[in-house]
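Hi V.,

You were right to ask for the full record rather than a summary. Here it is.
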Amino acid sequence: MTLDKLKRTLKTLFFYLVITIVCVSLFPAVSSLLSRQLENLPLPESQTEFSQPFDALLEPLTVSSLQQPLPQGYRVETEEGETVFISPSDLLAALLETEIQSLPEGWQEQPSAQTALLMRIIGLHSALLGMMGDRTEGVSVEQLNNICWLTADECRTIAQPLSQSSLEKNTDSSVQHAADTAAGYFLSKDGKLVREGGKLTLEEIYNRLQNGETPSAIWNSICGEGYRLETVKTP
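Predicted structure:
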């Protein structure tokens, strides 16, 4: 999927948000998720806990910015077959619920573990955006109201399916803070989304960092030279 197509898709999805927000009362679970997201926004800890490792990760990389904002939420199918509206950061945090257990105890204090988590979030988001773009490209606003943008099976191919249990219980706060920090970024190369960024698991990234590889070297190995980080404004 090219970035031009992504831009058009983002415009369509953003327009659809107006309709979704009006109809959000039809989705009780969605309302609680959005409420939790809004409650977290004023808290600086959600952005500062990972600010230093994130700045260090970005420093040697080329980062460019798209003008289109990401939608405030994605329509995603749960493992139980229901479609929910969930923010990008909440979705990414929920999909990493199992993977985070692969990190050693006390990982929150380890720079390599923090960096691995941020890299996993960015790579995973790149792949998810590509999948959503395929499903929603050329779809009308009315049709978007009746389909999910990501299926449970699609989520399973690169992480884990979204489940009701992961939505109902509190996500690890450190994972949530990392997702809040990195959810606005994704990988691209030659004007296309790099979906391969979602193939490396959190454990694989962590082990490679522990073995002395740099973030750039790891991404070069799966993206090839010339990749870049894209950032999208949030509404």
